[in-house]
Amino acid sequence: MLRLMFWLAAIIGFLFALDRLFLYLESRGWIYYRKKKPSPGSVGNAFLEIQQFLEPSKKYVVQIKKEEKRDQQGSGDLPPESEDLTSEEDEQ
Q: CA Rg, the chain, in Å?
């Protein structure tokens, strides 16, 4: 009985620590977990980024989307994003 209680406490402690880790990662903007929800288009854009590596012919679609987004932000149509993962690839 004592051994079962030990394992139960260990599992609960591990899950609590994992939850705190995910909340920390979410606060840094690295993942979506409990408090923040992803925007509807972010999943599609992520798959498009992956698809450009698998199918190089799709790369022009990604470039056009990035240019349109940059133009909209420049004209004031969209608010600037604080964490944009695609901007890292623009610099390269």
A: 20
Q: Each residue of 45-80: pLDDT tens digit?
A: 677 777 777 776 666 666 777 787 777 777 765 555
Q: How far apart are CA 54 and CA 82, in angstroms?
A: 28
Task: Report d(CA 29, CA 36) in Å as an integer.
Answer: 9
C-alpha to C-alpha distances, 8 to 3, 13, 84, nearest whole angstrom: 9, 9, 41
Burial, 20: exposed, middle or buried (Cβ in 10 Å; 0-12, 13-18, 19+)? exposed
Inter-residue long-range contacts of 78-85, CB under 8 Å, 24+ positions, other chains counted:
82/29, 83/29
pTM, two decimal places: 0.42
